[in-house]
Amino acid sequence: MALERDKHAAERARLTLGEGELGELYRRMVLIRRFEDKVAEMYSRGKITGFCHLYAGEEGVAVGAIYALYDKDYVVSTYREHGHCLAKGASARSVMAELFGKVTGLSRGHGGSMHLFDQTVRFMGGYAIVGGGLPLAVGLGLSCQYKEEPEVVCCFFGDGALPQGAFHESLNIASLWKLPVIFICENNFYGMGTMVQNAVSQEELYHFAESYKMPGVRVDGQDVLEVYAAVTEAATRAREGDGPSLIEAVTYRYRGHSMSDPAEYRSKREERIWQERDPIKNLRRRMMQANPGAEARLETIDREVSEVIDDAVRFADESPEPGLEELGKYVYSSEQE
Amino acid sequence: MAQITYREALNQALHEELERDERVFIMGEEVGYFGGAFKVTDGLLAIFGEKRVRDTPISELTIVGAGIGAAMGGLKPIVELMTINFGLLAMDQIVNHAAKIHYMFGGHAKVPIVIRAPQGGGHQLGAQHSQSLEAYFLHCPGLRVVIPATPADAKGLLKTAIREDDPVIFLEHESLYGMKGEVPEGEYMIPLGRANVMREGKDVTIVSYSKCVYDALRAAEALENEGVDAEVVDLRTLNPLDINTVVESVRKTGKAIVVYEGWRTGGAGAEIAAQIYEAAFDSLDAPVERVATLDTPMPYNKKLEHAALPSADQIVRAAERLA
Question: Does A95 touch chain B (CB under 8 A)?
Fold first, then answer.
C-alpha cells in the first residue's frame, strides 16, 4: 500500500508538540551536526582513524524517527550510525571515546566508528555489511512479539541496501509474521558513488512496500516533523499488532560516502540546493515563525551543545586506550578452554 | 538406559529444553508441520505450538539473522538449517554478525543462538548436497562448533549448546540419524570441549569426530586382527578443541591418524595435525596421517562417491603406512 505523501503531517505535528519538545528536536539535530563536524576535524588531525561515515545533512531522519519512539524501543543501524546512536540517547562522551579507540568507548575501543552499541538505551548496534541489520531487526521484532511486550524496532538502512536479498527477505518475513518493525530507508541518492537509479529498478523506493503488503510512504527527510509524524503512525500501528511499515526518507549527506571520499560524482550545484533545505535551519525557521522570541532559547541550546562536544573530545582524548590484555577478551562470553 | 536413535536423542533434547525454558524456541524450514526434513523436530509443533516451533520461508540469511536478533532480544533461538549446504546462504549472518557481535561491541552484547544443520555425504545426493563444512566454522573465532557422533552425545551436547551464551554451530551427520545407542533419560549434559576416548589402545591414535568415528572404530577392529592396538578419540566438539586428550594419547602411541569427512585440503584435520606437531612433535615416530574426503565435488555415481569419502579401509592402510 504505497501512500501519498501527507504534506500537512509536519504542520500537524508542530501543533501537537510544545515549544519545549521542538527545542529538544532542535537540540538533538544540532548535537549530531556539531558532533559530526568535530569528528571530521579530529579525523583530519589523526585522532580518529579507520572508516568513518558522517551523518551531517541527514539529522532530520534519525532525530524525527527516534523522537517518535519510546525509550525501550529498539534501534538497529548501519555503519553511518553516530546520529542514530546519539539520538537514541547514548552520551557524546562514550561515542566520541569509541571513535578515538578508547577503552571508555561504547564498545571499549573494539568497535570503532562503524560498531557502536549501547544496550542501556537499546541502541542495538551499527553494522557494516550493507543490509546486514535488517534480519537482526526482524529478530528483535520477533522477540518483542514473542514476549508480548509493547516495544517496536526501528531499523535504519540506506538506499544501497535495497538491492540486497536481506532487504527483501526481511520485509517478507516481517510482514508474514506481523512483526513490530519500522523499516526506515534513508534515501540519500547514492550508494557510495552509484546513483540510486543505477542500482534499483524501482527508484520510488517506498513502492517496495506494496509487494510485502505493508504501508509504504515517502517523507521529506529534511523535515524532522514530517519524519516524526510518519514514524509515530508506523510505531502505533506496530504496537497495536498490525505489523511493519516501510518509510522512505529522502535526504542528503553533506559529505562523501566516508572520510576518504571527496564526492566528485556529484555537482556543487546539487550540494548547494540541498544545503538550502537543511533540516536544522528548516526547524529553526519554523520555530521562529511561530514565536520570534524563541531565538534566545535556540542560541542557548547551540552554546550548550558546543560545551557537550568540547567535553566529549576532552574526555575521549584523556581516556586510556585498552590494554593488550583486552585483545583476546570478548571473543566468547565464557572461556572454556 | 533406553536405546534410542540419534534423531530421537536430538528430539528429546529439544523437547526437554523447550519445556524447561520459555525463551527457547525453534525455527527453520519445515520444522513444524513437516516435522523437520530429517524428522528431528517431529511432534514438537503439536506439543509446543506455532509460536515455539516456527516454520519459516526459504530465506536462510534472514532466518539465521532473525535468530541472532531474537537472541539479542533475550530469547534462546534454535535455528535449523535444512542442510549445511543451504547454510552457505546465511554465512554473512553467521560469520559477519553472530561471530562478531560479542567482540566488536566490547562484550556488551550476547548472541545465545544454536544453529543446527545436518551435513555429510554417502547418499548419492551429488555435489551440492553432500558437503561437510565444519572447517568453515572452525576457522572463525567467536563460534562454538559441536559435532556429535553418538546418540548420547547428540542429546547431552545439544542441551549444553542451548544453554550456552555464545553462538553454537551444531552439526549433525545425515547418516547417523537412524543409529541407535544408549541415552540417559532426563537431565543429561555433556560439557563442550571434552573429547571422548572411545577405545583405548597403545600403538596408534585415531582422532576423529562425527560419522568418521565409526569408520575409525571399524578400522581399529580390523587392525586388532593384524596385531595393532589402536586408540580411538572422538573430539565431540571442534571449538572448544580438547587437544590435550589427543596429545596425551599421541604421547602414548607415538603415531596419529586424523580422520574427517571434510575435504582433505584445509580441513579440520589439518588444524588438528598442526596442533599435534606443535604439542607432541618429539613423541611422534612418523608424520601424522590424514584420511579425508578427496579434493573434489561429490560425484553422484555410487562407486565414485564411495571412493571419494574416507573409509575404514583407508584408515587401516594409513595405519599400515605408520607401522
Answer: no
CATH number of the domain to which A185 belongs: 3.40.50.970
- The residue annotated as part of the active site, out of B16, B60, B172, B289, is B60
The whole domain housing A140 covers 2-326
How close does chain A come to B83, measured CA to CA in Å? Answer: 19
State which fold the B196-322 domain adopts.
Rossmann fold (3.40.50)
**Residue A264: how many CB atoms within 10 A of its CB?**
8
Is-contact B243 B258, C-beta < 8 A? no
Residue A262, CA distances (Å) to A41, A284, B98 in order:
15, 29, 34
Residues of chain A numbered 157-186 and touching chain B (CB < 8 Å): 165-166, 169-170, 172-173, 176
Is residue B34 predicted with pLDDT exceeding 90? yes
Distance from the Cα of B65 to chain A's closest Cα (Å) equals: 5
Please tell me the predicted confidence (pLDDT) of residue B92: 98
Q: In chain A, how many domains are there?
A: 1
Give the model's pLDDT for residue A9: 86
Helices (H) and strands (E) in chain B, counts: 13, 14
- What residues of chain A lie within 8 A of the CB of B96, using their CB? 129, 132
Find out whether B75 and B25 touch, Cβ atoms under 8 Å: yes
Q: State residue A186 phi and psi, 5-degree precision.
A: -85, 100
For the residues B121-134, what does the mean pLDDT come to? 97
Q: pTM value?
A: 0.97
Does any domain span residue A334?
A: no
Query: How many contacts does A have with B, using Cβ atoms within 8 A?
Result: 148
Contact A139 B68 (CB under 8 A): yes
How confident is residue A99, by pLDDT bands cut at 50, 70 and 90?
A: very high
Give residue B72's pLDDT band: very low, low, confident or very high (50, 70, 90): very high
Domain(s) labelled CATH 3.40.50.920 in chain B stretch across 196-322
Place A337 in a pLDDT band, splitting at 50, 70 and 90. very low
Nearest-CB residue to A135 (from B65, B104, B106): B65
Distance between A227 CA and the closest CA of chain B, angstroms: 25
Pairwise CA distance, residues A318 & A34, whole Å:
20
Tell me, yes or no, if B22 is annotated catalytic. no
CATH 3.40.50.970 region(s) of chain B? 2-183
Closest alpha carbon to A123 in A185, A55, A73: A73
Mean residue pLDDT across chain B: 97
In a domain, A335, yes or no: no
CATH label, B2-183, candidates 3.40.50.970, 1.10.287.130, 3.40.50.300, 3.30.470.20: 3.40.50.970
Which residues of chain B make contact with A142, given a CB cutoff of 8 A? 66, 69-70, 73, 75
pLDDT of A131 strictly over 80: yes
